[in-house]
Amino acid sequence: MTTKLFGTRVQRVEDQRFLRGQGRYVDDIDAGPHTLHAAVLRSPHAHAKVLEVHVDDVLDLEGVHAVWTYEDLADLSAPMADPLPLLIPHPTLTHARTQYALANGEVNYVGEAIAFVVADDRYVAEDAVGRIRVDYEVLPPVVGIEAARSATALVHEDVPGNVGARMEQSNGDAPAAIAGAPHVLTLDLTVERSACQPMEGRGTVARWDRDIDRLTVWSSTQTSTGVRAAIAVKLGLDLGQVDVVTPDVGGGFGVKINHPWPEELLVPLAARLLGRPVKFVEDRREHFISSAHERGQVHHVEVGFDDDGRLLGLDVEFWHDHGAYTPYGLIVPIITSTQLLGPYKPGAYRVRFESLFTNTVMVTPYRGAGRPQGCFVMERTMDAIAAYLGKDRADVRALNFIQPDEFPYDQGLIFQDGRALEYDSGDYPASLEKLKALVGWEEFPAFKAEMAAQGRQVGIGLACYVEGTGVGPYEGAHVHIETTGKVKVATGLTTQGQGHATVFAQIAADVLGVPLADVQVVTGDTRRMPYAVGTFASRAAVMSGSAIHLAATRAREKVLRIAADALEASEDDLEITDGVVSVKGAPASSIALGTIAVLSNPLRYAFDEQSKMATQFSVGDPGKPPVAEDDEPGLEGKDFYSPERATFASGMHAVIVETDPLTAEIKILKYAVVHDCGHLINPMIVEGQIHGGVAQGVGGALYERMAYDESGQLLNASFMDFLMPYVTEVPTSIDIDHLETPSPLNPLGIKGAGEAGVIPSAAVFAAAISDAEGFSITSMPISPSELFALRRLHQEEPS
Questions:
Q1: What InterPro entries does this protein's entry cite (predicted)?
Q2: Alpha-carbon distance 532 to 493, whole Å?
């Protein structure tokens, strides 16, 4: 019998190709001979009027084929002169603003695109960009949340107070509950702006085939179908005239979910108008100054609680820096405002936020998408309550947990998908007990005393989170069984290293009873699956995994129906093992999947068992049509999965750190994770996601930040200045344990896992450093120099 694959530690099938250097990224695409190359002139100012763009010195430069500014766009394609789309509108986003493909009279951040050049090669294109002269009227820039709130200058002159949105949600009367509580604390907490740095930046290649009026675009994107739709609209093409293919992607992490980027429109437009393939690949500095950032928020917390530490009321107000434009709406602050609650019952809860314009790069989700900020706020609050009451931090958390018998649990708020914030399943007390055992929570006081005797400072921290995953609206899948017996699976969302080729194959192989090696998975190709949403929000396994399960089940039903007819047996008596359908208990009475695939296509031929091929004309059964009304030729299954609401994964992290008494360097001694994403498809891949997330979280907590000066210049726009952890800074081993509380919302009982490793990082490191140092950490990320300064500040404060 075929070994069940779902839930087993199957080696990733895609790795050998990458390890051997055979990955194929956008820059590797050979779109044909005579490919042209594009470069972009970007603003050196954070805020300025664009008075005139002088391109005369470029037009006659040998090798230059096109030079465009905003004034050219309407003549090239009228919709190109309109602003880029607002992808996720919201009623409270009262002053949404999106940029143009090329700046229309004003630039609002350093790096905004002003002119687009196409030339024989990138060298000529860059030289041409360098010859373009621009007359600016420099305007006062607004940089940072404090400057945005003061509103002494405006990013957009028609947006009062720089406020793009104000939003409030509540469950109960939090102010009244806090006023009547025995104890009240207030906290001010900050998370600074940061950004993801994928191995591969943005890249687009386009080729126009005049013979068939068809455009093929390769893009390093997280949403090939969204890019396809945008290109069709902006270029005035039918959707069927545009194919978008996502090749290997060297990391997404959220920055590539925004669509379309200006280059994703300008490159296809140039390819169509010039009749030659065109390529654009950003360099690293361009990624720093013109891609999306995230994280920047300031929070004010008031919390009321009783003598035991039980929450009675929680009131949170925060300010979100969304940069110069709002293409992705309010997703990040909405997630913060709702996911902040984590696994707890807050008593009464009120949350308010303002989303503010600044003259900096726009904000879109970055792995975690608002959850790291929310987790930081809630977990710092729990630690503050424990410290105030002199209680164990784990005990205070346990007292406030939602209990296993309380699911589904409605938090009384609306989540990012417009649905109720209702947790589907979980067992938070069990997770905490597992984590305490894993990290040695009870034994730590003795260890701390031992280290102190040696003159060493150590601290321990823990942080809990809940993550909404698998948000809709849908994903689809197509499963096709070939006449060779091989299985082809296609789903529309894209892949950026998550192991989709393995886990999706595991799902299909189990349903169809075929070896894993016989399943081939294709993602992110609109030619194979034209309708999809995209890869983000830890949704791939839940959404496409469920769709593949449903589609494979449809294919299996047809397999059994045809096999039953061929073997003259009941469908209930059949089984599929290693790609062969046989009668249970009678393996000699069998038929291969490939043979069934041939029989599924009634070409008015008979099938010869000996030669295993279609042979001669046959009328079949004269009493019925060759293809039934409710059937179609071929051995295929296609289906879509659309959830009623998100499913909620959860987890808890703990870390032991050592802080150097002299240098204030922070060293990780032990890191532990307990994670619950429902049924595990492949535990090894989930653990790989956690390892990667923890590494990214270490960077976000201790190293990575976007440092702007007051004029809006990014001061660390290179890897010489933007710090990232090396392997020497990441834990060499991470202790991981799993809990599986299946979700009742999808056929596989699964939840997402992609962002689990990064969500609690800032919170858990702040807690551990606070424990080591003896004072509270209220702003992240924290560097050794900042920790050193905090030490001096607390030493100087009067006792």
A1: Ald_Oxase/Xan_DH_a/b, Ald_Oxase/Xan_DH_a/b_sf, Ald_Oxase/xanthine_DH-like, AldOxase/xan_DH_MoCoBD1, AldOxase/xan_DH_MoCoBD2, AldOxase/xan_DH_Mopterin-bd_sf
A2: 6
Number of other residues whose CB lies within 10 A of the CB of residue 601: 15
- What pLDDT digit, counting tens, does each position of 232-262 carry? 999 999 999 999 999 999 999 999 999 999 9
Q: For residue 459, give the amino acid letter.
A: G
CA distance 692 to 470: 20
Q: Which fold has domain 472-641?
A: Aldehyde Oxidoreductase; domain 4 (3.30.365)
Q: Does domain 415-469+648-799 have CATH number 3.30.365.10?
A: yes
CA 112, 318, 355, 89 torsion-angle sign: positive
Three-state secondary-structure class, residue 260: coil
Other beta carbons within 10 angstroms of residue 621's beta carbon come to 9
Distance of alpha carbon 156 from the chain centroid: 29
Q: Are 87 and 259 in contact (CB under 8 A)?
A: yes
pLDDT digit string, tens, across residues 130-157: 999 999 999 999 999 999 999 999 999 9
φ/ψ (deg, to 5) at 592: -75, 155
**pLDDT digit string (tens) for 649-694?**
999 999 999 999 999 999 999 999 999 999 999 999 999 999 999 9
> How many Å apart are CA 230 and CA 100, to the nearest integer?
13
pLDDT tens track for 541-576: 999 999 999 999 999 999 999 999 999 999 999 999
> Quick one: pLDDT band at residue 307, thresholds 50, 70, 90?
very high
CA 134/CA 645 separation, integer angstroms = 50
Q: At 179, list the tokens.
A: 């006023």
Question: Do you find a cis peptide bond into 260, omega within 30 degrees of 0?
Answer: yes
What per-residue string of b and e applies to 653-680 under the rule 16 or more CB within 10 Å gives b? bbbbbbbeeeebebebbbbbbbbbbbbb
Q: Give the alpha-carbon dihedral of 464, 466, 467, 471, to 10 degrees.
A: 180
Q: How many helical (H) and strand (E) elements, i.e. helices and strands, does the chain have? A: 21, 31
Average pLDDT over residues 454-472: 97
SS3 content of the chain, % helix, strand, coil (to 5): 30, 25, 45
Q: How far is CA 671 from CA 439, 656, 768, in A?
A: 7, 7, 11
- Contact (Cβ atoms closer than 8 angstroms) between residue 589 and residue 582: yes
Burial level of 629, CB count in 10 A (0-12/13-18/19+)?
exposed
Residue 618 pLDDT > 70: no
Residue 732: count of CB within 10 angstroms of its CB: 8
Supply the pLDDT for residue 626: 66
The DSSP symbol for 26 reads: G
487-491 β-sheet, strand order: 519-523, 487-491, 475-481, 636-641
Q: How far apart are CA 569 and CA 376, in angstroms?
A: 61
Task: Identify the CA nearest to 269 among candidates 61, 74, 28, 534.
Answer: 74
- What distance in Å separates the CA atoms of residue 55 and residue 118, rounded to the nearest whole number? 13
The DSSP secondary structure of 148-183, one letter per residue, reads: HHHTSS-SSTTSGGGEEEEEEEEES-HHHHHHTSSE
Whose CA is closest to 141, among 49, 46, 43, 51?
46
Cα atoms found within 13 Å of the Cα of residue 322, Cβ hemisphere only: 28
**Gyration radius of the chain over CA positions:** 29
pTM score of the predicted model: 0.95
Domain spans of the chain? 415-469+648-799, 472-641
Joined tokens for residue 345: 């019952």
Whether residue 1 is predicted with pLDDT greater than 50 in this model: the reply is: no
Task: Report the alpha-carbon distance of residue 219 to residue 455 in Å, rounded.
Answer: 54
Residues of the chain above pLDDT 90, percent: 91
Please state the separation of Cα 678 from the chain's center in Å: 19
Residue 622's Cβ-count burial label (10 Å; 0-12, 13-18, 19+) is exposed
Token pair recorded at residue 178 = 């806090």
